[in-house]
Design brief:
Strand order of the largest sheet: 1-2
Strand content: 5-15%
Structural class: mainly alpha
Number of strands: 2
Oligomer: single chain
Shape: elongated
Length: 104
């Protein structure tokens, strides 16, 4: 009984996932620049469709600003902070929260 219920639930989730993936692919295809940007991102080792689409959704500025600005927007650029005693410390802060999830 439990196994049959789990199998039905998995089938429903798989169907919904297929519908979501199809909707995302249609949305990307409907834009003039997104397919090219997604294909370019996927030329990097380890970047697939999910990561590329996620990065494009979270950082629409990709390809329009410098790599330094992109790194800062993603929260990957070192920022000098203020520590106790006035000594600056470098660290990664800020950025678009969803970017990290796209690349994990």
């Amino acid at each position: 009984m439990v196994r049959a219920s789990l199998e039905r639930t998995i089938a429903v989730v798989q169907e919904e996932l297929a519908q979501i993936e199809a909707a995302i692919a249609a949305l990307v295809a409907s834009d003039e620049a997104l397919p090219h940007k997604a294909a370019l991102l996927q030329t990097a080792v380890g970047v697939g469709a999910v990561a590329a689409y996620g990065l494009l959704a979270e950082l629409p500025e990709l390809g329009q600003v410098s790599h330094k600005v992109t790194a800062a927007l993603a929260g990957l650029a070192p920022v000098v902070g203020r520590a106790v005693g006035g000594v600056g410390m470098r660290g990664l802060v800020g950025g678009v929260v969803g970017c990290a999830g796209c690349c994990i």
